[in-house]
Amino acid sequence: MLYKYSSFQQIFMxxxxxxxxxxxxxxxxxxxxxxxxxxxxxxxxxRSLPGKAILEIGAGVSLPGILAAKCGATVILSDNSELPxxxxxxxxxxxxxxxxxxxxxxxxxxxxxxDLLALPPQDVILASDVFFEPxxxxxxxxxxxxxxxxxxxxxxxxxxxVRSADWSLEALLYKWDMKCxxxxxxxxxxxxxxxxxxxxxxxxxxxxxxxxFAKGSPxxxx
Length: 222
Hints:
Order of helices and strands: HHEHEHEHEHEHEE
Oligomer: single chain
Strand order of the largest sheet: 3-2-1-4-5-7-6
CATH superfamily: Vaccinia Virus protein VP39
Largest sheet: 7 strands, mixed
Distance between the termini: 18 Å
Protein name: Histone-arginine methyltransferase METTL23
Catalytic activity: L-arginyl-[protein] + 2 S-adenosyl-L-methionine = N(omega),N(omega)-dimethyl-L-arginyl-[protein] + 2 S-adenosyl-L-homocysteine + 2 H(+)
Organism: Trichechus manatus latirostris
EC number: 2.1.1.319
CATH class: Alpha Beta
CATH architecture: 3-Layer(aba) Sandwich
Family: Belongs to the methyltransferase superfamily. METTL23 family.
Structural class: alpha/beta
């Protein structure tokens, strides 16, 4: 039964304790507003998660992936293979949340590594604020495209913070034969400044996207 799991608020607080220890480090060592919004989307659709194969990319503190695992999904957390400390943070998040079954994997966006080749087909890819630096956008979509070729029905569930009106994924999505659907925050109770008593996302402008192959229409969670 889903109700036996820890609440979203409890899971957030466990991860917040970890993030406070490493706040001075690089981007991925902090619970960003986007992570809380994506986790809220997962929590809102938690009944659809048991049995799903889910990969979180650029996971860092891994709040969305941890929540998905708590809700019954089979989860793999991944971060940059060239940043071992990022992978250690993923592992610590699993340990703090008593999730020894969650696998942690080093994946560098844009690189076709043996670990990427060995990944089983996924149902959902989670990406919280990975569209942070424009120079990374195509490398991210290259990796996502490779995973979509393994399972053409896989979806990328992504939240990003609007930082510049000049940044757009439209041309890259067209290039890689993908499309996206914008999910209104109010449709999953994320149109608020204080989700799960986290004080996040605050007044930041966050967008939620579901990206899929252009040739298939995404089936949104029930």
